[in-house]
Amino acid sequence: MNKCYALVFPVSFFFHALFAQDNWTQKSSLSGTPREGPAGFVIGTRAYMGTGYYGGTCLNDFWEWDQSTDTWSQKANFPGAVRNAAAAFAIGTKGYLGTGTSCGGGGYQDDFYEYDPDVNNWMQKADFGGGAMGYAIAFSIAGKGYLGTGTDINYPVLRKDFWEYDPVADAWEQKSDFGGTSRIYAVGFSIKDLGYAGTGKDTNGDKKDFWAYDPSTDTWTQKADFGGTARWWATGFATGDMGYLGTGSGLVPTTDFWAYDPTADSWTQKEDFEGVARNDAFGFAIGNKGYIGFGNGGSYLSDLWEYTPDGIPTAIAGHHKEETYLEVFPNPINEQTIVRLHTIELPDEHMIMKLSAMNGQLLYTLPVIDGMVALEHINLSQGIYLCEVSSSNKIIATVRIAKK
């Protein structure tokens, strides 16, 4: 039996040592065509990105970025017409992409496709219920996809209709209109069981209002205005319990970056985005990290930047042997916390994680599935705990976690 030994330090030491300040790190750039207006989604620890616009040409190529190796791999082309300003979301292990506008007189599109990364294949699904359109927001909540706002062939008339996609029924259902004015170039993301949308541009100019959508009641509620200047073509993502929004244009392209706390309904300015100021970028999150890349900053861009929020564990939080370590987010933990094993070579599939008190008392034994453990349905008091992942009775990695 593996023994756990207590290290006696004040709790405040661990809380201070476990967390790093917000910062940006540049990752590998795409080797393919730079672009603005791509669409994409995240499945597991991989991001998928494609379509977009480059120098008068719309695109249909499609790429996978692997967070663990920081590498790009080209995948099967999107099968619909080449396009810009499409919308996309992920539901479970599948991604969905559609709508948008095609170059060269192709007009707006209403077709929608499902991508299966396991077989690298696209399958056409039910056309978007609101008809041909582009420049919409999109996110997913609890097994459903949501899409709305934007414009269509009637531009400069803008839209605020909002739709739900059910992948089981392969059907679209219209829901309550977006709570703000009709608009284009807005930002949307989801946090837990709510969707959030705001900024963009309406017929009166740039916007900074921000709204929450509750699918359980099909209602929109206005929230605190975005903390920066009014803007359009911004980028956003959510990780943990927080939303993040930045870049885009007001009077000029910006690099300021803001965090939204839905519990406090407040915005806090964070470290500026360190890439070139840009419009029409691609934002996403994997685990506890956020990412912004691509877009137009005076030229078409292919770079990618990683954002580490406040409260991310530093190296002192775990035992890193060579390239194997455990990452925990969020930490201090809650019912959304994920423990993820980083390793060059994944051990055999029979891995477990033991969660113990610092006095060595074993509290939980949990299976490690696809290198991850979700710390849901566990009951812990305030304090410091030890997570230990093992395979065939051999310890692979350990990390301390905190419960406030």
Shape label: globular
How much of the residues is beta strand, in percent? over 45%
Strand order of the largest sheet: 33-40-39-36-37
**Straight-line N-to-C gap:** 29 Å
Major sheet size, sense and barrel closure: 5 strands, antiparallel
What would CATH call the homologous superfamily of the largest domain? Kelch-type beta propeller
Summarize the model shown.
The chain is an all-beta fold. The chain has 2 domains: 11-16 and 312-403, Immunoglobulin-like (Sandwich); 22-308, Neuraminidase. Strands 33-40-39-36-37 form a 5-stranded antiparallel sheet. A 4-stranded antiparallel sheet has the order 2-31-30-29, with no helix packed on it. The chain has a 4-stranded antiparallel sheet with strand order 3-4-7-8, with no helix packed on it.
Q: How would the blueprint of this fold be written?
A:
Elements: H1 11-17, E1 19-20, E2 23-27, E3 39-43, E4 46-50, E5 53-54, E6 57-58, E7 62-66, E8 71-75, E9 87-91, E10 94-98, E11 101-102, E12 107-108, E13 112-116, E14 121-125, E15 137-141, E16 144-151, E17 158-166, E18 171-175, E19 187-191, E20 194-198, E21 201-202, E22 205-206, E23 210-214, E24 219-223, E25 235-239, E26 242-246, E27 257-261, E28 266-269, E29 282-286, E30 289-293, E31 304-308, E32 312-313, E33 318-319, E34 325-329, E35 338-342, E36 351-357, E37 362-367, E38 372-374, E39 383-391, E40 394-403
Antiparallel strand pairs: 1-32, 2-31, 3-4, 4-7, 5-6, 7-8, 9-10, 10-13, 11-12, 13-14, 15-16, 16-17, 17-18, 19-20, 20-23, 21-22, 23-24, 25-26, 26-27, 27-28, 29-30, 30-31, 33-40, 34-35, 35-38, 36-37, 36-39, 39-40
